[in-house]
Amino acid sequence: MGASVWVFLLLCSESIKTYRANPHFAIGDVRIPTWTTPLFLILVITFLLPHTSLLGHLCGALVGYGWGLGYIRFLAPPEWVLRFIEEKLNLLGRLPHYVSVDQKTFGRYGVLPSTSSPVGPGRGTLGAANGIALGPTGDGQRLGP
């Protein structure tokens, strides 16, 4: 309950990044700005799902657009504050999978992990080859007795 506001905040922030790289997408002869996609999604969800907060979603979108455009980046604490908190709370020792500010290799906000080689059927994913459905390799599961 209420997580959709965060979803729209992140969608709007990412739509601004996408807008800088690809300002429009085309449907037929109509060119639509990419930053408007989350607003369209907000309207669709408002009409399809009853009792959703249009105002809450629009406020989340407004904050996301503000973050994406750089107007409210001052709200993020500086790295020296984060290092001080990490040191005082001993987060590396207490949390098993904690990533320190100093351990990040791609800056403060990081990047999503990606693979350099494409993952295809037969490499641990579900897929189809020659019209035959394949499952994860080596799973050892059987359907039936």
Q: Termini separation (Å)?
A: 42 Å
Can you tell me the overall shape?
Answer: elongated
Largest sheet: 2 strands, antiparallel
Q: What's the total number of strands?
A: 4
Report the total helices.
5
What does the oligomeric state look like here? single chain
SSE string, helices as H and strands as E: HEEHHHHEE
Q: Give the low-confidence spans.
A: 122-131, 138-142
The percentage of residues in β strands lies in 5-15%
Strand order of the largest sheet: 1-2
Summing up helix and strand content along with how strands pair, one would put the structural category as mainly alpha
Number of domains: 2
Rg measurement, Å: 22 Å
* Overall pLDDT confidence: 79
What's a concise summary of this model?
The chain has a two-stranded antiparallel ribbon. A two-stranded antiparallel sheet has the order 3-4. The protein contains 5 helices and 4 strands; from the N terminus they run αββααααββ. Strand 1 and strand 2 form a beta hairpin.
Give a description of the structure.
It contains five helices and four strands; from the N terminus they run αββααααββ. It has 145 residues and is mainly α. The strands form two sheets. A two-stranded antiparallel sheet has the order 1-2. It has a two-stranded antiparallel ribbon with strand order 3-4. β3 and β4 form a beta hairpin. It is elongated, with a radius of gyration of 22 Å. The model is unreliable at 122-131 and 138-142 (pLDDT under 50).
Features:
mainly alpha; two-stranded antiparallel sheet
Give the helix/strand layout.
Layout: H1 3-21, E1 24-27, E2 30-33, H2 37-48, H3 54-69, H4 79-89, H5 91-94, E3 127-129, E4 132-134
Antiparallel strand pairs: 1-2, 3-4
Helix pairs in contact: 1-2, 1-3, 2-3
